[in-house]
Predict the 3D structure of the following.
Amino acid sequence: MAMNLHVSDLDIDLQLSIFTAVMERTPGLVAVREIASGRLKYINDTGIRMLGTEDFPSLELLMEQNKLGTGKAVQGAAFSSEEPLLQEIQWKNMQGETYTGLYEEMVLKHKKEQYCFFRITDSQSDRRYKLQLSKELQRFGALFNYASIGIIVANQDGDITLINDFALSQFDYRREELTGQKVEKLIPRRLHDKHIGHRDRYNASPQSRPMGIGLDLFAVRRDGSEFPVEISLSHYSNEEGHFVIAYISNITERKKAEERIERLNNELESMVEERTQQLVKALADLEASKEDLTIALSKEKELGDLKSRFVSMASHEFRTPLSTILSSAFLVKHYAAESEQPVRNKHIQRIVNAVSFLTDTLNDFLSVGKIEEGKMQARYSMFQIKDYFQTIIQEMQGIIKEKQNILYEHTGEETCWLDTSLLRHIAMNLLGNAIKFSAADSTIELFTRMEDNLFTLMVKDYGIGMSQDDQQHLYERFYRGTNVSNIQGTGLGLHIVQKYSELMNGAISCASELGKGTVFTITFPADPINIP
C-alpha cells in the first residue's frame, strides 16, 4: 500500500527543526510577518546582517518603511500552489544605505491568521557572484584540463572523481574508463596492498606534501607498462566529503638524464682515477729519477772529492817515500866498500819500506774503488784460527817498531768459516794502526774467540788514542785524527775495514781515550749453515 508523506504528518518538533534548517540555509533575507498586526515572527541571521540591527522593534519599523511582508504583492490572495511572485525592489538598511534586490513573498494561513513569508536577495551581488563563479569555474577548467601535469582527484575511499586530460594522456585511458575506479588501477599490482595502507594513513592525517620521499615511485599505463613518477599530494573538503588531489609528473626523461649524468660521473671518476694513477706514477718516476739524479750527482761529487783528496794526499804522502827512495838510491852507490855494507843495507831497507808504503797506499785506493763499484764479494772457507793469525803476526814483524811486542791469545773452537783474504786485510790494517800509533817499547794485544757460531777479533793498543770528535768521523774516507798529522797515512784504512766487515755481516765497535789507547772489536757470524 502506497504511503503519502506530508510535512503535516511529522512531529511538530521535527517540523520546526526542518523549518529552521531550511530558513538558515536559504540565501538572502528570509522572514515571516503577521499581516494584520505587522508583528515580525521570524527573521534569519542573514536578514539581521542585511538590515543592520538585531532590535526587533527597529526591524519591524524598517520592514514597514520598506513595505516588506505586507502581503500586498500577492493582493491578499490566500496560500495556493501557484508560484510566488518575484520582483525587483529597492530597500534601505538601518544606516540608510539603499540596496536593490529581488523580492518574493507568499501568504499563508495558520489558525485563522494570515502570515506573509518573504525573501530578499541582492540581485546585483547575486549576478556578480554568479559571474565571478562562472569565471572561476572557467579558470579552474582551464587550469585543470590544460595543465601540463597529470591531476587526479579521489575521494577518501580511493575512488577517482576527476582526472584531467594530461593524466588521461599519461595513462592512455578514456575518462569514462577511470572515473569511479580505484586509484590503485594506476599503480603496479605488486604495490596495491601497500598503497591502500598509505592511503588510509594519509586520509587520517592529510597534509600537502610530496609523496614517497626518498623512494622510487612507479605508475602503470593501460597496456601494463610502468614509468617512473613524482607525485605531490594536496587535499580539500566540502559538503560532499574529503578529497585528495594528486599531481603526477612523468620523470622518465629526468631519470634517463640522471642515469646519463651518473654514467658520465662514473666515467669521469674512472678517468680521474686513471689520470691520478698515471700522475702518481709519473710523479713517482720523476721522484725516482730525481733520486737517481741526486744519487748520481752525489756520487759524482763524492768522486770529485775523492779525486781531489787523492791528488792532495798523493802530493803530500807520496813525496816523502819517493824522496826517501831517491836519496837512499843516490847514497847506496857511494858506499861501495865491503866495510860499508851495513850502511848500504840501512838505505836498502829504507827503500823497501818506502816502496811497501806506496804499494799499500795504492792497494787501499784499489780496494776503495772495488768496494764502490760493488765488485767485492765474500768467499768463505774454513781455516785454523791460531795458525792463520800467527802467520799475520809474523808478516807484521817487518814494520814493527823497536822493542814493540804483539801478544796473541785465542779461546774457543779452533776453526772458523770466513773470507780469509778480507779477514787478513782487516787484521793487518788494525795491527798496522796499533803499531803506527803506539810507542816503540809498547805492547799490542790481539785476541780471537770462536763461540756459539760467532767469531770475535779484538786489537788493543796503549798508544795516543782518539778524541770523541775524531771518533764521530772514524770510518769516513780520507779522514785522519787531529793528533796524527805527523804520522804517515791515507785515511782509508778504517773505511776499508768497516766495508770489509760489512761484506761478512760483521759489526765493528771502537773504544778510545786520548793518551790511553784504543780497542777495536769486530764480531762476525761464522756458522757455515747460515753462510750464503
Summary: Confidence is low (pLDDT under 50) at residues 75-82.
